[in-house]
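Everyone, describe these structure tokens:
***
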Amino acid sequence: MKVYFFLLFPILILASCKKYEEDGSTFRANKKLLKTWVYSEKILSDGTIYTPVYTYTQTYFEDGTMLLTSDYDTAYTELNWKWEFIDKKMSIRSTLDNWDTYILSKIIKLTDNELWIKTNLIDNGEVYGLPDLEKHIAL
């Protein structure tokens, strides 16, 4: 009987994990997210595709902090954010210095090499703009 339990237990764990819209699951989501991601393209809700002309990275750390860097020509920006999974690891909430404003990112795809998110800016409970799809590649 113990043999059946050890065979079924991993299957039950994997079956209980949610799947993202495109690819990946919430299983090991922390491990997959905790790295540096480089912004590769943005697809607007009308289908327009933008590729960045500058380097934009997000590095997620286990302590719930995220370092966002931007390098454009001679200007270099570095911001320290806080992040947390919400909605059973289906979304990420990112805040800057405990403001009422935050970014809500619905995870569309999370694998070891790709992170796709649809982001919304939320200020005092009000949602601004339509969600755009951002694609990031692991460094």
